[in-house]
Amino acid sequence: MRVSPIVFPDPEALGRRLAAEIAAEIEDAARAGRMYVLGCPGGRSAASTYRALAQEVAARRMDLGHVVIVMMDEYVEAVASDAHGSRYRVIDPELPHSCLRFGRTEIVEPLNAAAGPGRGITRERLWVPDPSDPEAYDRRITEAGGIDLFLLASGAGDGHVAFNPVGSTADSRTRVVPLAEQTRIDNLSTFPTFRGLEDVPRYGVSVGLDTIRSQSRRVVMVVHGRDKGQAARRLTLATGYEADWPATVFADCAHPRLYLDQAAVAASASFASL
Known about the structure:
- By secondary structure, this protein is α/β, with parallel strands linked by helices.
- The chain has eight helices and eleven strands.
- It has a seven-stranded parallel sheet, with helices on both faces.
- β10, α7 and β11 form a beta-alpha-beta unit.
- α1 crosses α2 and α2 packs parallel to α3.
- The two termini are 19 Å apart.
């Protein structure tokens, strides 16, 4: 279905609105005595939301002991090939572009500091897919009862969501994927510590499109900035999954929302012919 966007003046206003929603859902889950599972992208798109969520946690004096953070993906590197195919391992978690490092330092640590001692997200509740057994990630999410809210972001140049490349099938699950060149180019902006395209890993382990669609109670696609004009245009017009822009899968998810900022909306006008 086509999703009417909600437009905010800037990423900070967008982040405050979304953070307030998440905080309320976390409190509801605590009152119900159940886990709250939040699906998270790394990178720039949800950064203002993560900052605002830490402020909400501090202001509301929240306990986060029941919260699980599910990262969408991680960079991996090939280590060997055998009769069963290539084998992969996650990159060093201390590298600036590690999604595990991002989840730890940009999401969990600020939230825990805001919650206070003994009230934060424990180490085992920050999840990242394992390239040695990608299918286990989907099972783990299912066993947790699914994802309460999946925050989604779209690649600026090719519409990738997580590391799902153009042409991904709608029924794809968590798996290792080669990273498309445009995805790697987009990530040069996401992680300025990359000196050039040769520094960007060529493989990633990623939740699949069906992982997102079938495992989420609701999703919010976050798009802001002038560089996301094409993404804003494609997602505003989407009525369902389009394989040439994978992020359009959000329109097939339960209770989808599309949050844009004014800069992305203004920039989308240049793509009106698409």
